[in-house]
Amino acid sequence: MGNKPQRKWTAVAGAVLLCMAVIFIVFFFGEVSTAKFDSVFLFPTPEYETDWRYYDEAGNAGYEAHQEDGYLVEVEGTVGNAVAAERVMKEPLENAALKFQYLNRQISVYLDGTLLHSDIPGTPEQGVEFLPPDAEFFQKNRDAFKTQYVTLPDDYLGGTLTVVTYFADDIPMVPAYPTMQNDDTVASYPVVDSARPLALSGVFAAAAVLLLVLLVYAVLSGIPDWPVALLAAFFLCAMIGQVYTSTAAYYSIGTNLAGYLVSALYADLLLLFFSCYMRKGFRIAMLCAVAFHAAATILQALDNAWAGEFYEAGNEGWVAFGTLMLFAALCFFEWRAKKPVFAALGKYIAAFGAGYAALLACAFFFAPDSVFAEDVWRPFSSFVSGRAVAFNNIFSICLSIAGLVIIFLDFIRRNISVRTERNMLALKNETVLENMRGMEAYMRRADEQRHEIRHHIAALRILLKNGEEQKAQAYLEELSEAVDASGLRRYTENMLVSAILNGEASKAARSHVEIDAELGVPQELSLSDNDLCSLLYNMLDNAIRACAELPEGRERRIRFKMQKKGNFLVIVCRNPKAETIRTDAEGHIATSKRNAAGHGYGLSVMRKICEKYHSVLLIEIDDEFFTVRTNLRLPD
């Protein structure tokens, strides 16, 4: 009753967060999917042969040095701090312009030997020349990321484009490559190149929305599982990371440190989600590993930015790989401990591994030279060549899918359990309240009999005075039978508490169990009758059942204490402990009934009622006794 406003505002806050997440996703995709200009990408990649030729001031020819995955590392074979990159322009584009983005570099751009742009003052208008770079520029603008637009003449097709790039000291010799673009037409390359990451980010966005819906529904149902918020955050950040790495986002948003860190660290949220279900020591170990990975990634990105390199330069993914391997080891130990989440996770990962092995076999036997085979094999080929990023990504995707399935199935199971619990609890409460109404009537009749006792005493005096002892004896026996027939006891002035105790005492007597009650409860309590009924019924019912299972010779006595102290209601129930206390896989006390379905909810019900009245349910177990106690705060 006192907790309803809190639950109401929690639900409202969850609904607002859900709406904000949906709006954010819609606008985010709307922004990155809007092409701001058409473009032709002229950076040399394995997919695009751009036919660049390189030479230095002395005429030495340079050549491209590539990584194992085919991407350019630097131009080698040249001398000095400047290199010219030259190619013939063959790409038709109306109203074309060249866009350069570079850091710690200066450029001069020529078309057929005619200067179009130069960062160095005094560059001649005709003829490609190497000039001394502006040292003062490098000193003042070392960390300035520069974007330069150079307009091409209408007759640029067939012309020779020359870009002379000047480098600061200790900077890799990677020329400033342009992108051809205009403001009128729709980009082709960014859309094609972005199709896969944008589609994957759409899947991640849908998963995030689904988890947020489940979380809000769980909060409204009173069974929130807050680690789900971490999994939802992972999918949201994964969505941002996939979009950030797409070409469409590069052209509409650009590159920045925050975007790179989100794309590099979002998998850590997944590990934190699973660590919430680990033992405390393992959870601390994972938290430390994730913190180390985050710190290493941030420091490396800042160092790269300071050195004028790409944020991701040097990030081969080995720190993240080590974090994942630690996580896998801890999951193995939790699986051995039969933790439910990790038992399910082990099955799903085994299924994913078998499926991936099947894909590898299909690619190897049926299409070994296809793009499909290259994509399937890439996590392992890049791993062998010294980069673990692709392997980490596929492992994280498998973990995320497994986490989503586990949460969804657990949500269904918990929802069914809660509905079953509430239905059973409603039946129990209805039965108890019905018994209470009947007992109240009996107890009122007993009170009436007590008020009439003086009349009976007066009649007995008359009989004894007249010497009619036999009639007096018969009268006493009749009166005694009438009193005993009620079988009721007034434990306290509170009719509901007395009714519950009378019903439980009758049940206990059938199992040869005694209840010693010490009560100090006023006639009226500000607790809900339904809550009080559920709490006492479950507490005493569990104690009676435990005593009934005791072997012969053990004392079957329940000590029950209930007193109002100030604004609190103190309740203590102690019963002899059975030889063993059954627990489930998570260490919680389990039902001892053969048919566990539909049973075992008593402690859960009592805990929720205690939380509602700002208290906890304390359970104490020693060699002899099982004690349950709570201290409920009574509403005003």
UniProtKB/TrEMBL annotation:
Positions of the Sensor histidine kinase NatK-like C-terminal domain: 531-629
Domain of life: Bacteria
A Pfam family it matches: HATPase_c_5
Spans through the membrane: 12-30, 198-220, 227-251, 257-277, 284-302, 317-336, 348-368, 388-412
Keywords: Kinase, Membrane, Transferase, Transmembrane, Transmembrane helix
Keyword Signal tagged: no
One GO MF term attached to the UniProt entry: identical protein binding
Protein's recorded name: ATPase/histidine kinase/DNA gyrase B/HSP90 domain protein
Species assigned in the record: Christensenella minuta
